[in-house]
Structures are given as structure tokens and as C-alpha cells.
Specification:
The complex is a heterodimer. Chain A has 17 helices and 15 strands. Chain A is an alpha/beta fold. In chain A, helix 3 runs antiparallel to helix 4 (about 50-60). Chain B is α/β, with parallel strands linked by helices. In chain B, helix 3 runs parallel beside helix 4. The chains are: A alpha/beta, B alpha/beta. The interface of A and B includes residues 13, 23, 79, 82 and 83 of A. Chain B: Heterotetramer of 2 PreA and 2 PreT subunits.
């Protein structure tokens, strides 16, 4: 979908001028990558776009991708929002990246330090690699699939241009990574013999399945496999009447992608709570609505029905009670309110969970890797971040972890030297 | 029809239906323009400065340039214009035509001459054509003719008195305004010379000699005519404070009628001009920028203000502020401290930065960055350190700071309301 909010030079100037240039700016604090937002906006204001790029990329290696898909934690905290409307930081960010050259003023540091293994080449891993490289270490990426992670493989092309994702990943690998090795790592094993430290950023590998009958019927798919296929340019296997179970970004994005692929197809998001409780970002919701996706709120899935193939889903009407530990109101079934939604395809998008890898590393009850505040695991020298530690998170949150891990790894390696 | 509030005013015996007239400028340099302006509702026009037939007027284009902070382009407007290319033979016909079409509007003309005969013949011909008022340009920033070519006539006290005398001698009962420049050592001396010369009033003042700007990549001045440029006459909002001071200084020291000109951009500016001594207000940059239609807001804005203030006529405003304008040594010295209006503060921290890096380090910032400290994001003013300079008040985007002034057991609060 064409980004109608893309700024012209005049719009960028007017928007930049609205920025108050706050001290101790809440936007900067809210940004997981700590991009100094008022600083780069001041540079936009003066037409110093190269300076603005330097400021952003100093904090965030995924400058191109975040200019397109960042959920704008910054704007949510913008003080200008208390006066009228928050500054549209992401569009200003995008204005900078659209109008500057990534190769300019680039001087990669000389790498003379130890090798560090980075298991998983997604945003967290690549961010860690860039920071380590800048500190003089030699990051080696061990990746079983494609370097770039979710932005490169799963985010719909309609949202994130393939070229942007590919170029950005390629740029970081070219300038900041010592070597990329094709490898599936299941154990930390001997890695610490070959490398000074290890950073695990493999992401979540397994799909969460709803505990209801019928998930094995023909016509039931997981959202991520649909997104991966579509991203590769393949046609999705979805039929004419599609139900998407879930209320997060992946659910909404999948719904929007399927609608975009075939506008004549009915796509309905089935969610246990209401509109207010949707976990997806505002823009994801807006895009889905604009594309014609419909919603079945307050609907708890009970059973996927059909002979061999999906014929529909039985759901129970829900009402919301007290908030649960996530802060969202808990859905409770309403008695005798079951109803049937006829469908030929069901997409499951209720999240992912960690796999069984790295048994020697201490995990949480949810199977996520346990780390201390320096992102170090129970094994000295082994660090972890990104989805494997937090559950599903955004690119910019993965950047935060990658940077933090790099600083901890450098500290660890320095300590070792001493 | 709704009743229109009477905002008429007497100016040198001429009834103006509002205090707002179009000044001698490009907007009055064609008969059709003057006609349209009057039809739109302006109270009068002063046709662009004319001269005797043999005077060459080598206009050069482009003649306009501007500057403004970032996206606002016309805070200041510069021109390298000269007087009108139309000579007196054309202007006298226009005066006649306008007077016939608009017998109740003020039809004025501006003149510039080189020698006594020129000045006086211009006056005679205009009088014969039926002009209501004659304005004499003693202050074209591109220089005068005659006395000291290239220099502004009003920069010489002697020449001002002498030429004003020539004009008044020829004008007889027809009111004469002398348009002066603020670019002099002592504006009061010039005003006194105008009075001694016998003129009826002063137009205070004109555009101000300036250099509008440079292309920093070619080092050509703005406007650039094949790479070459020069000094411009500056008008617009940028010069309003200079004009205000000029009018006030004359009004406080010389008993003469003043027409305010230079930098008024809305009815509020006009009220300020009148409050320091102007009997009416001339506009040029405003209609050149946004058109003659701006008269409607000027009139209704003034009418609403008069109602709100309980004034009967615009004449009630004239000189209203003079009683409060003193020399620095006469201004009282209260004990002044900045005070926060808590409920208005949005927590941007601009006051903190301004005081920290631009003033007195009298504001403490409560950010919550320090454990145990409150995270209100509110400034706290240190009464001991604060001298009450008001810099914090200037930068506050939401007017959440006021000055508490104490003197002789009395206390008052001061906020700038614009």
C-alpha cells in the first residue's frame, strides 16, 4: 500500500518546526534504541539531513527498516501531544533516510579484537554485530536460514519493500560482520572455545497452537508460514472465506496481506476481546480496516469443524471481566452463546514460543532464556536477547537488546583480558 | 444585513471609514489595483511614489526577496524596488478617476522630487487633480534624488526642514505627510524638522535598508540578478518593533500627527501602532502577501477589540500606551522572580535548558532519572538564584511561566499576552 503519509520537504519542515526540542525528551527515553529524536529533528529543521542520518544511525543500525515499520514508542510519549498532536517522528525519520545516502560518512572501525559468535542473524543479532564491530571485535553470524530475520522474511512486501529490508541487512553485513556461517546451532557446546563470547538471538521458532479440536484439518495454517510464502512472492493457500485467530500484529498483518492478495475474499479477524484490547499497533489495525478486513470481537474459538477440510469454526460469545496480569480485561464465556462461523480457511496467529534448543541454558517457565540485567545467561560468556528473551518484540526493541548485549560482551571480554 | 460597528476615524481632517489604508507600494501602482483595494474595503490609498516626467526609473527584476525561520518564508520582505515608473501625468489622471469613483475614500499620492520646482509642480498638479493628501518620500532606501543622490533625504535634518517647507508652501490647505526613515541618529530631531518645515504629519516610517541574505553555495546576495545584488528595503513583521519605537519616540517628543507604517501585519499590530501614537495605519506587505481581502479581518478584529475594551472610537486608542513608556533609568526596579503555573506546564523542559545554558542556572529539573526523585517532569525555580530575567517565560511554548514582581509592599504578576 502506498504510504500516503510520506512527507514532502515542506511537510517535513513544518512538522519539524512543531517539535518543541524538549529537554530530557520523553520520546528519546521511550525509544528502545534511544534515538535522540529532538536532536535529529533539529537537523531536519535546518536542512542538515546528513547530520540527521548520522544521529539516527548512531543509535539504530536499522535506520531504513524502522523508518517504515517502527511502531513509534516515541510519538506515544511526545509532549507536543499534550498541546495538540504528537510529532510524526517516523515520517520525519523516513524523510531523512529517503533523502540521504547510507554509504556517506561511513568509516568502519578496524577489527583487531576477538571473534564473537552471534547465533541468529535477525535485528538483535545484527545490531549486536554492528556495535561489537565498532568496538573492534569480530562478529561472526551463525544462521541456519536467511540473514535479516523477520523484517527480511515475514513482513509483508506491501508494508516493507523487499529492497529496503535486503539492502539494509546487506549493508550491515558488508560493513560490520566478519563472516556469515550457514549453521544450525542447537547447543552452546564448544562455541566458547572458538569464540570469546556468544550472543543468542535466534528468535522464537515454534508456533503457539490453540487448545481446541480441529487444528489438524486441511485448510488450517499458521500465520508466519503464510507471511513467509507471500513475502517470497508465492500465492497463499487461503480460500474465499478466511478466519484469522488472534489480535496481535501478525494476525492483523496476515489479514491485511490476504485481503490485499485477493480483495474479493472475505477475511475476518476472530478475537477474544474487544477493539480496545487489540495488541496490534494502530497502523496495523488501520491498514487492515482500510483493506476491508472485518472483525469478530468477543469471540472465543471452541472448535474448528469440518470433515477432512475446514468448514467453519464454533465460537462462544465473550464478555470482559477484570484485567489479567497483562493489564487487559479477561474474556469470560457467556453461557449458551455458541455460534458457528462458516469458513474455508483458518489462520492461527496467536503467537510463537521458544523451541527446545540450548538445553544447557536456564529457561523461564515459558521456555524463554533467562538473563540478568546485562543479558548474560547462566553460562558465563553466553548472552541472549531479542524474542528468545522477551517473547515476540519489535525490531527497535531487538536493536536495544543487541546494543546492550554488545556493551556487556565487550565488558566481559575486557575483564577476561585483565 | 448585520450592523457594522463604526470604526471611522478623523485623520488630518479627512474622514476614514477605518484607520487602515494602503501604503505607497506595488499594490497601489496601477489604477485597477487601487480601485480593487478600495472596493474591497480599504479606507484609502496612497498611490505609489511618482515623479516628474523627465525622471528615469530603471526598475530591475526580480525585486523581491524574503526571509523567515525555516518554513515561514515571509517574516521579512525585502525589495530593490524604486519609485513608480509612472510619472505625474499618469498619476494625476488616476487621482481624478479614483476620486470620481470613490468620493468618500481617502485618495492620496506619494511624491519624490530632485529640486524645488519639481516638488512644487508635483504638488500643484496633484492638488488640481483633487488629491486628499500628499505624502513625500524622504526615505526610499534605494536613495533620494536631488539634495544628496543615493542618500535618504530624511537623514539630513536641514534638508528635511527645507524640502518639507517647499512642499507645504505649494500644498496650502492640502495635508502633507513626510515619510521618514528610522535609520537616523536622532529620530526626534528629524520629526522636529518636519514640524518646523510646516508639514501636517509624519509617516513613520519606511522600509529599512538591509541585506536580505545570501546563497551560501554561490555567495550571491538575494535577490540575485545574474549573480549580482545589493541592499534591499526591509518590510514585514520583522521591522514592527523598530517602527513601534520610532512612532513612540516621535509621539512622546513632538506634537505632530503620525501615520503608522512598516511592519503591521494584523489588527493587533495596528492597535499597538495606534497605542504608541499613530493616527492611522498603513499596510503594504500584508496585502502584497495575502491580498486586499485581509481588510475584512483588520476591520472586524479592530471592531471586536473596541467593543471588548469599551472604546467608542479607534481614536480612543491613540497614544494610550505612551504614559507607560520610560527611559531605562526611570523604569522601576521591583524584586522579580519567575513563577510556574503548574496546571499549564507540559513538562518540555525548555525553561530549564534556557536557564541552565542561557541564564542563571536557577531552575532544577525533576525528571525521575534520579532514584527517589519525583518524575513530574516539572521545573522547580530556585528563588535565591532567580533574578527574574524572564528568559524562561520567553521560551515556554504554553505560557506556563509568569513573573512575580514585588515592590513597596505591592505584588503583581506579569505575563506577555500576544
Amino acid at each position: 500500500m502506498e504510504d500516503r503519509r510520506k512527507f514532502s520537504r515542506e511537510q517535513a519542515l513544518i512538522e519539524a518546526e512543531r517539535c518543541l526540542y524538549c529537554y530530557d525528551a520523553p520520546c528519546e527515553k521511550a525509544c528502545p534504541a534511544h534515538v535522540p529524536v529532538p536532536e535529529f529533528i533539529q537537523s531536519v529543521r535546518t536542512g542538515n539531513l546528513k547530520g540527521a542520518r548520522n544521529i539516527i544511525r548512531e543509535a539504530n543500525p536499522f535506520i531504513e527498516i524502522c523508518g517504515v515499520i517502527c511502531p513509534e514508542f516515541c510519538s506515544e510519549q511526545c509532549i507536543r501531544g499534550k498541546i495538540d498532536t504528537p510529532i510524526n517522528v517516523r515520517q520525519l525519520h523516513k524523510f531523512v533516510t529517503d533523502n540521504t545516502d547510507p554509504e556517506e560518512n561511513l568509516e568502519p572501525a578496524e577489527r583487531t579484537g576477538q571473534k564473537v559468535a552471534i547465533v541468529g542473524g535477525g535485528p538483535a543479532g545484527l545490531s549486536c554485530a554492528r556495535e561489537l564491530s565498532r568496538l573492534g571485535y569480530k562478529p561472526v553470524i551463525l544462521e541456519k536460514d536467511v540473514v535479516g530475520g523477520i523484517p527480511a522474511q515475514e513482513i509483508a512486501r506491501t508494508r516493507l519493500d523487499e529492497e529496503i529490508a535486503g539492502k539494509e541487512t546487506g549493508f550491515i553485513v558488508k560493513h560490520f560482520v566478519e563472516e556469515v556461517k550457514r549453521a544450525e546451532v542447537e547447543f552452546v557446546g564448544d562455541l566458547l572455545k572458538e569464540y570469546g563470547a556468544v550472543f543468542i538471538s535466534t528468535g522464537l521458532e515454534k508456533e503457539q497452537e490453540p487448545d481446541i479440536p480441529g487444528t489438524d484439518l486441511e485448510g488450517v495454517f499458521f500465520a508466519r508460514e503464510i507471511l513467509k510464502n507471500v513475502r517470497k512472492g508465492q500465492k497463499s493457500p487461503a480460500g474465499r472465506r478466511v478466519g484469522v485467530i488472534g489480535g496481535g500484529n501478525v494476525a492483523l498483518e496476515t489479514a491485511a496481506v490476504l485481503k490485499a492478495e485477493d480483495p474479493g475474499r472475505d477475511v475476518e479477524v476472530i478475537y477474544r476481546r474487544g477493539l480496545k484490547e487489540l495488541k496490534a499497533f494502530r497502523e496495523e489495525i488501520e491498514e487492515a480496516v482500510e483493506r476491508g478486513v472485518t472483525f469478530q470481537f468477543m469471540a472465543i474459538p471452541r472448535e474448528i469443524r469440518g470433515d477432512a477440510k475446514v468448514e467453519g469454526i464454533m465460537v462462544t460469545r465473550a464478555r470482559l471481566s477484570e484485567p489479567d496480569e497483562s493489564g487487559r480485561r479477561r474474556p469470560e464465556p457467556v453461557e449458551n452463546s455458541d455460534f458457528f462461523i462458516p469458513l474455508d480457511t483458518i489462520i492461527i496467529a496467536i503467537g510463537q514460543k521458544a523451541g527446545e534448543k540450548f538445553p544447557e541454558i536456564e529457561k523461564t517457565a515459558a521456555g524463554l532464556i533467562k538473563v540478568n540485567d546485562k543479558l548474560e545467561t547462566n553460562i558465563p560468556g553466553v548472552f541472549a536477547g531479542g524474542d528468545m528473551v522477551n517473547g515476540a518484540c519489535t525490531v527497535v526493541e531487538s536493536v536495544r537488546d543487541g546494543k546492550k548485549a554488545a556493551a556487556s560482551i565487550a565488558e566481559y571480554l575486557e575483564r577476561g583480558k585483565a | 444585513m448585520y450592523r457594522e460597528r463604526d470604526i471611522s476615524i478623523d485623520f488630518l481632517g479627512i474622514r476614514l471609514d477605518s484607520p487602515f489604508i494602503l501604503s505607497a507600494a506595488p499594490s497601489t501602482d496601477e489604477l485597477e489595483l487601487a480601485y480593487d483595494g478600495l472596493k474591497e474595503g480599504w479606507a484609502g490609498v496612497i498611490l505609489k511614489t511618482t515623479s516628474v516626467e523627465e525622471n528615469p526609473v530603471p526598475l530591475k527584476y526580480p525585486m523581491m526577496s524574503s526571509f523567515g525561520p525555516q518554513s515561514r518564508k515571509v517574516t521579512g520582505l525585502g525589495n530593490i524596488d524604486l519609485i513608480s515608473q509612472y510619472h505625474i501625468d499618469v498619476i494625476e489622471k488616476r487621482v481624478k478617476a479614483l476620486k470620481e469613483s470613490f468620493p468618500h475614500k481617502m485618495i492620496g499620492a506619494s511624491i519624490m522630487g530632485a529640486k524645488k520646482e519639481d516638488w512644487q509642480s508635483l504638488v500643484h498638479r496633484l492638488k488640481k487633480a483633487g488629491v486628499d493628501i500628499i505624502e513625500c518620500s524622504f526615505s526610499c532606501p534605494q536613495g533620494s534624488m536631488g539634495e544628496a543622490p543615493g542618500r535618504m533625504l530624511a537623514q539630513s535634518v536641514e534638508a528635511t526642514e527645507k524640502v518639507a517647507g517647499w512642499v507645504k508652501e505649494a500644498a496650502g490647505d492640502t495635508p502633507v505627510l513626510i515619510k521618514i526613515t528610522p535609520q537616523v541618529t536622532d529620530i526626534v530631531e528629524v520629526a522636529r524638522a518636519v514640524k518646523r518645515g510646516g508639514a501636517d504629519g509624519i509617516t513613520a516610517s519606511n522600509t529599512i535598508p538591509s541585506l536580505l541574505g545570501l546563497d551560501i553555495y554561490t555567495f550571491e546576495p538575494y535577490p540575485s540578478l545574474f549573480g549580482k545584488g545589493g541592499y534591499s528595503g526591509l518590510s514585514g513583521s520583522a521591522i514592527k518593533p523598530i517602527t513601534l519605537r520610532t512612532i513612540a519616540e516621535i509621539a512622546r517628543n513632538v506634537d505632530i500627527v503620525i501615520s503608522g507604517n512598516g511592519g503591521a501585519f494584523n489588527w493587533k499590530d495596528a492597535v499597538e501602532f495606534m497605542a504608541v501614537g499613530a493616527g492611522n495605519v498603513q499596510f503594504c506587505t500584508l496585502p502584497m502577501h495575502y491580498g486586499f481581502r485581509t481588510i475584512r479581518d483588520l476591520k472586524s478584529g479592530l471592531a471586536g477589540y473596541l467593543d471588548a475594551m469599551g472604546f467608542k472610537s479607534p481614536a480612543d486608542i491613540v497614544k494610550k500606551a505612551l504614559k507607560n513608556i520610560y527611559s531605562h533609568e526611570e523604569i522601576p526596579a521591583p524584586k522579580t522572580r519567575a513563577q510556574l503555573i503548574e496546571e499549564k506546564c507540559v513538562g518540555c523542559g525548555l525553561c530549564y535548558v534556557a536557564c541552565r545554558d542561557g541564564g542563571h542556572r536557577a531552575i532544577e529539573w525533576r525528571s525521575g532519572n534520579v532514584p527517589g526523585q519525583d518524575d513530574s517532569r516539572k521545573p522547580a525555580f530556585d528563588e535565591e538564584k532567580c533574578p527574574g530575567c524572564a528568559m524562561c517565560m520567553q521560551v515556554c511554548p504554553v505560557d506556563a511561566i509568569r513573573m512575580k514582581e514585588q515592590m513597596d509592599g505591592r505584588c503583581q504578576y506579569y505575563e506577555e499576552v500576544r
